[in-house]
Specification:
The complex is a heterodimer. Chain A is α+β, with helices and mostly antiparallel strands. Chain A is 34% helix and 14% strand. Chain A has a five-stranded mixed β-sheet with strand order 2-1-5-3-4, covered by helices on one side. Chain B is of the alpha+beta class. Chain B folds into three domains: 45 residues; 113 residues, 2-Layer Sandwich (Uridine Diphospho-n-acetylenolpyruvylglucosamine Reductase, domain 3), CATH 3.30.465; 102 residues, Enolase-like, domain 1. Chain B has 13 helices and 14 strands. Chain B is globular. Classes of the chains: A alpha+beta, B alpha+beta. At the A-B interface, β4 and α3 of A face α2 and α6 of B.
Chain lengths: 166, 277
């Protein structure tokens, strides 16, 4: 069957099997940031935004997104520059092996759109479907809090922080 | 895995699509997709309900909330009156999966999937919800679900909506015990509702999940509780009765013995939380 949908603003018209998973189609189209990891709806590494809301692409049939809009982590970096959330994750040392990060960014971006001023508890609750086995979540929670502040304009980024810290 | 996928946009077309053998209904697909992928279900056709606009509605009446079949958990949680009018349902569905799952999963899916571990289902049992089927029948939830994964939904029919009666409960409590905090299927879950009068219990409802083939309302305990005051003695007696009533099994998430003890102990939350009438 043929379906049409947008990924990061780009229109795709693809021939798919009815049982094909969104994660499979996206990776076939070259969006390799979307990880096909646990395949049991446990880890969140395959998270993408569907019309702005995070969903698990390993638990979504591609057939069901016909006519909809998908955003993967690639969609958040504009002209090669990292998004505020991505930069904050780097600055706070919240990325170690990096495997969970695309899914985490996609979810965190949705959180900040929905709730521009989340408490630490709200951040943890919203991210409870995104597993990270490296960081213990402390640095990630800190980074998302910082990103929220920058996005609200209450904290200005230290331009050198990224280069010096790592 | 060769099957077709259709997404009709009217209820008439939905019904026509369902009339062919081997058709399976899908809304969010968070449960069905798993079963298809592991080969437990071999559909010839998957019929998505998501594009039928007449199934996507919330109707907030004075005495009940009507939740259309394709309303996701997230949409329901975002619906402001829910927390005020039906807080037990709010608390229960907030524990479902993660935001990613709640953005796709639906209350109706939870009902039709009929898992004894269904978090939303437990709240619906407590609230005496009814299920509106496409043939016009309205069936109490306890009659609709008949076993693990089994309902009396007739073939070629679909659930239109869930009707949830409102009632002014003084106390509501829901707790899910899992192996981790999120993205987990419960080892056991419990909920109760209490209506007080003159310092004593006027009405009491209590239900457990994951400890029997379906969610279990403990009606003997509910009758026993009427007119009682909530003190240590009461909690102790209820706890003993719970131990005798639940019928858990051993499975990958916990042993029957552990679950029985857990269920009995959960009643003591009433003391911990200083629940009073």
């Amino acid at each position: 069957m043929r379906v049409e949908f947008k990924v990061n603003g780009k229109r795709h018209s693809v021939e798919i099997e009815a049982g094909e998973l969104l994660v499979e189609t996206l990776r076939r189209l070259g969006y390799k940031s979307v990880k096909h990891a646990c395949d049991t709806a446990s880890c969140g590494a395959c998270s993408v935004q569907l019309d702005g809301l995070p969903v698990l692409s390993c638990r979504t049939f591609t057939a069901a997104v016909d006519g909809h809009e998908i955003t993967t982590v690639e969609g958040f970096s504009k002209e090669g520059a990292l998004s505020v959330v991505q930069s904050a994750l780097l600055e706070e040392g919240a990325v170690q092996c990096g495997f969970c990060i695309p899914g985490l960014v996609v979810t965190a971006e949705a959180l900040l759109n929905e709730n521009p001023e989340p408490t630490e508890e709200e951040i943890k609750t919203y991210l409870n479907g995104n597993l990270c086995r490296c960081t213990g979540y402390e640095s990630q929670t800190r980074a998302i809090k910082k990103a929220a502040e920058i996005r609200r304009g209450t904290l200005h980024r230290n331009a050198n922080a990224q280069g010096d810290g790592i | 895995m060769s099957f077709t996928f259709v997404a009709p946009d009217t209820e008439k077309e939905l019904k026509a699509q369902l009339s062919e053998a081997g058709s399976f209904l899908m809304t969010g697909g968070t449960d069905l997709l798993v079963k298809v992928r592991i080969g437990k279900i071999k559909p010839q056709k998957i019929v998505s309900t998501l594009k039928v606009p007449t199934l996507h509605f919330l109707e907030n009446k004075v005495d009940e909330l009507v939740v259309g079949a394709t309303i996701s958990y997230s949409e329901l949680l975002d619906f402001k009156p829910l927390k005020k009018d039906l807080p037990i349902l709010y608390d229960a569905i907030f524990t479902v999966g993660s935001p990613q799952i709640r953005n796709r999963g639906t209350l109706t899916g939870n009902v039709v999937n009929a898992s004894p571990a269904g978090d939303g289902l437990l709240a619906l049992y407590l609230l005496n919800a009814t299920v509106e089927v496409s043939d016009g029948s309205v069936i109490p939830i306890e009659k609709f679900v008949i076993g693990p994964g089994k309902t009396i939904l007739p073939e070629r029919e679909y659930v239109r909506a869930i009707h949830i009666p409102k009632y002014n409960w003084n106390v509501h409590y829901f707790e899910k015990v899992g192996q981790r905090n999120s993205m987990t299927i419960s080892v056991a879950s419990v909920g109760w509702l209490i209506r007080c009068r003159n310092g004593a219990i006027e009405k009491f409802r209590i239900a457990y999940g994951s400890v029997a083939p379906t969610v279990l309302r403990l009606k003997e305990i509910e009758r026993f509780a009427e007119g009682k005051t909530i003190d240590e003695n009461f909690v102790h007696t209820v706890s003993e009765m719970v131990k005798k009533s639940v019928k858990p099994i051993d499975d990958v998430r916990g042993s029957a013995k552990y679950r029985k003890t857990l269920c009995a102990n959960l009643v003591y939350r009433m003391i911990e939380r200083r629940t009073k009438c």
